[in-house]
Fold this sequence. Notes:
CATH class of the largest domain: Alpha Beta
CATH superfamily of the largest domain: Bira Bifunctional Protein, Domain 2
Number of helices: 24
Helix content: 25-40%
Number of domains: 4
Distance between the termini: 12 Å
CATH topology of the largest domain: BirA Bifunctional Protein, domain 2
Strand content: 25-35%
Structural class: alpha+beta
Amino acid sequence: MSKAENKVTEIPKYDRAGLENVMKRRFIVVPSYQIYNGIAGLYDFGPIGCALKSNIEQYWKDHFILEENLLEISGTCITPEIVLKTSGHVDKFTDYAVKDIKNGQCFRADKLIKEWIETEKKKKNLSEEKIKELDSLYVNIDNFEEKEIDEIIEKYNIHSPDTGNQLSKSYKFNLMFETQIGPTGGCHGYLRPETAQSQFVNFKYLLDFNNNRIPFGSASIGLGFRNEIAPRSGLLRVREFTMAEIEYFVDPLKKEHNKFHLLKDLKLPLWSAKSQFNGEPINYNITLGEAVEKKIIDNETLGYFIGKTYLFLIGIGIKKDGIRFRQHKPKEMAHYASDCWDAEIETSYGWVEVAGHADRTCYDLSRHSECSKIELVASRLLKETKVVKGVKINLNKGIIFKNFTDKEKAKKLCEKLSNVNEEEKENLMIEFEKNGKIEVDVNGEKIILDKDKNEIKMERFEQNVHEEKYCPNVIEPSFGIGRIVYCVMEHCFKVRENDSRRTYFDFPPSIAPYKASILPLFEKDKYLDFIEPIRTILVQNGIPYKIDKVDTIGKRYARTDEIGIPFGITIDDTTLEDNTVTLREIDTMKQIRVPIQEIGNIIKNVSNRTEKWEDIVKRYPLFEFTRNGN
Length: 630
């Protein structure tokens, strides 16, 4: 094979049309229920897509759960309303929508305006001032609310992109799917918008499992649901998707990370909120250590996981120059976050968010503690013992329930007094010491508990305390697996330089759907007899494979290249003589001759990242393919 034939061209800016053709033709990803015309925002993964997605998830597990010793849990998709009301999703998990006033077609307002800006900027003879105006609008659109969105649509005379009809005023639309739990309708719920809440409500169990030590992290991979207003852009905006989320619990006074020093010198493409406001470019020359020291990134733990995400994305095949980390602007920040950075990947659709990194503070645990009346706290040892004064309330529940005819009222009274804070206890104690009784408000009704009726006792106490309780803060890296899968496909999609019809995926072997293809040179028994022993070796080494026996060897190489199989094992005439096969690598198309018994270890080691192909090539003789196969 000549050097010219060996050359490849990496597509400079992502060939969406070519990729989508392969995705559909080779059943990688297709719209769901297509024979019934499908539903927007729902997709099915075929054998290749399913394996690719599964391998990326496993890479994520190894990179985060295994390396960071995280505690993996699995929660339910159906979530009671009270949980999501407490978390803020019922009230705040919304996007702004607008409608075509004639046909009722809905659009997500911010995406509609962004798409209009992109179209507008393609017009010729735009002044520099106009371009700056549009760029500023594009960057800040996420900060706008109803009034500002309506003003923009009116100012620029933006209409429905499909019909040219006028648009309605913008309005909030809650993105959660509602459901009824059980037949009576008495229990309302939602399909979960995130896996995080299962981790928060199980915090007590997780803390106990970790021997009550902070910091630690939990993780979940599972389905999330989002009732998108107008799903478009393929896998980038869907209604059902796989999420991979980490909740890393830290002491709010100690947000350092014990492994931060390993990544502090890593340079990342950071685009801070300040730079966005000032129209400044991405900073490519700042290290994680400098970013944390200058408080561009709030703390070490947040910075550490941003660095881990960068390495994860590169490891699964995303190009370095196609990654950036964008900080949320104040109005864009989620209701629970104090700092947030999105990992964004450049695609044919523009820059796409694939992972968020948020410091959620103590919002979730404190809200669930408050609403469930279950204490979700950790403890820290004090440097010195301190004396704590307090008030103890002793309720004689037997007497109380005997004296009250309304048992429900008695129950609510006892619940309220068992959950009063220290300040409220002190006020009640002052009243008790003065009058021998206390007055308690229960749903607007004043109820008196009397010492002389033996209903209540209150006493002051002092005790030595060696530790204090606190509500942990949470650092959350959250990943959209479907978006990452699509971005990996775009970034790994290539075409042979001398034949534009020959495309292939340059997947890292660790995530490739199939690691090897078994290719007998001819469909004759003497070649086919070697398939089973080779297949057995691959299976024993945990290597997924595909057997292809039909057509010329060149067409079969092209077929297996097209679905990203990194290694081709060819059974040829020499195999019949000495039990060796050729091993072909997809990107360079170099072939080496290898004993059959060594095939499994070679492919396994490259796939597990313990050896590089470049090093293996040095150990074995190169094979030069000729017309007669010699």
